[in-house]
Amino acid sequence: MGRFVDLTGQHFGRLTVIERAGSYRPHGKYGNHSEPLWRCLCDPERGGCGKETFVIAHNLKNGSTKSCGCLGAELAAERLGTYRKCKKKS
């Protein structure tokens, strides 16, 4: 078992870690361990929307979770806008 690392107050993308929220136990063949779960704020000062979300520590550390979902929505809207501009030029 690994050493506990307190992520409270650290920033990952738009997320700021508020506190530990327990543990997450995956289902299926990988369900023989638990992973720390953290409550995070999608920080408006870092471009976020202000919502709170729960994220597994591994996803914070490896960069696969950077926001509560607002970043993906913004990028999708931006891509759609670019697509629409291209279609109008034709």
Tell me what you see in this structure.
The protein is an alpha+beta fold and 90 residues long. It has one domain. It contains 2 helices and 4 strands, in the order E-E-E-E-H-H. A 4-stranded antiparallel beta sheet has the order 1-2-3-4. A hairpin with a 2-residue loop joins strand 1 and strand 2 (15-24). It is globular, with a radius of gyration of 17 Å. The relative contact order is 0.19. The model has no long low-confidence stretch (mean pLDDT 86).
Tell me the number of strands: 4
**How many separate domains make up the residues?**
1
Separation, N- and C-terminal Cα atoms: 59 Å
Shape: globular
Percent range for β-strand residues: 25-35%
Largest sheet: 4 strands, antiparallel
Query: Largest sheet, order of strands side by side?
Result: 1-2-3-4
- Our Rg estimate from Cα atoms comes to 17 Å
Low-confidence stretches: none
Number of helical stretches of at least 4 residues: 2
The SSE string, one letter per element, is EEEEHH
- Indicate the percent of residues in helices: 25-40%
Structural class: alpha+beta
Mean pLDDT reading: 86
Blueprint (SSEs and pairs):
Layout: E1 11-12, E2 15-24, E3 35-42, E4 52-56, H1 57-61, H2 70-89
Antiparallel strand pairs: 1-2, 2-3, 3-4
Structural features:
90 residues; alpha+beta; 4-stranded antiparallel beta sheet; 28% helix; 28% strand
